[in-house]
Design a protein that fits this description.
homodimer, alpha/beta, Arc Repressor Mutant, subunit A, Rossmann fold, 2 domains, six-stranded parallel beta sheet, three-stranded antiparallel beta sheet, 9 helices, 11 strands
Chain lengths: ~210, ~210
């Protein structure tokens, strides 16, 4: 099937299934069901079965899914069964926090370079990486065959950085800046937005208590 | 309608619609359509109309939605038409980056307290706030009528902090820790997880180039 024939919203749910399967595996569980995955995510079992059916048959009626097998299948579908090199732009508070985030490797990613334009930050060591001058972006992207970058710069610099990334061939951007980025249609962009998480919880709270 | 009768997955899409409407409004657009919102989010127009129909009629066939009106309606539905006080736990790199995030206020939130257990951080000033001793959590939560907290502590401390928050009456938690939290069923939890964003883009990339 043409990969683009599958609705993007389906693709965006697969990482949630993958995270849930990993959680179940960490808890020592070897078999699960669409009902159980759905309960953990607030998604209906029907939706999950429908999403998975785009890609094949992963379980048997009545016996459920093998946790490890379904995890491997989803990793293959999402192409995270081997590692993508990432560049991180921005070595401030946020950049340092991202570098300390421990789950990239197991998720299929490795931050291989961190770049900044601030003279005070360039040359400093953060964990295993030394902060590089943003002027070195073209070489770094080429050397490490980087297609994905994370933007963790001040809001006002985010668009300029995104443009520079696209110019050197980056195809996908994860942005922590709280603004929409204006980019060519073929570039993939995802935003980390705490408001989306917060606003989907307030619906359930009692506003008279605030 | 009973608020719990609406599927959670519908509620979780509303903040995305709200963000898109805000973007359109910032661009000076006064009317939009489910098609346009859908195109920006990778969600079908039918899905958007179906989601909104749970809450009423917000547009007229053929004339689309008034951007400002629909925004106000969604803010009311999500109960972010006035402000929720938040507590932030963790005043490290990540906590400082979160405090600098500029969109909380316009999204319906105000971080009114930041707490940490680290003696070196307590008493320091970050922006307008002074870092408080985590031991003061019960008083802080009570004084500011806080129902929502953000966890930005090291992974190994996240569960303990979450338990402490629940004990003092917090009802909703946004966690940046890359681990699932084990909490009572009535507590709302959302995770900020960069892997979900990254893994939903790799599907579209060319793995032979990495």
């Amino acid at each position: 099937m043409n990969p683009l024939a599958i609705p993007e919203i389906v693709i965006r749910r697969l990482p949630l299934y993958l995270r849930t399967l990993k959680l179940l595996q960490d808890q020592g569980q070897s078999v699960t069901s669409s009902q159980e995955i759905g309960d953990k995510l607030g998604i209906s079992a029907t939706q999950i079965r429908k999403d998975l059916s785009y890609f094949g048959e992963f379980g048997k009626q009545g016996t459920g899914y093998d946790v490890r097998y379904l995890q491997e299948q989803l990793q293959q579908i999402l192409q995270v069964d081997s590692t993508w090199n990432l560049a991180l732009i921005g070595a401030g508070d946020l950049g340092r926090a991202i570098l300390r985030y421990s789950s990239f490797e197991e998720g299929g990613f490795s931050i291989v370079a961190v770049l900044d334009r601030d003279r005070d930050k360039i040359g400093r060591r953060i964990g295993k990486l030394q902060v590089l001058d943003i002027a070195k972006l073209p070489e770094v992207i080429k050397e490490h065959r980087i297609q994905i970058a994370i933007i963790a710069v001040p809001t006002n610099d985010a668009q300029e950085v995104a443009d520079a990334l696209v110019n050197v061939g980056v195809k996908a951007i994860l942005s922590y800046a709280p603004i929409p980025l204006s980019l060519p249609a073929h570039i993939r962009v995802q935003h980390i937005d705490p408001l989306v998480g917060l606003q989907s919880m307030t619906y359930y709270l009692d506003p008279s208590q605030r």
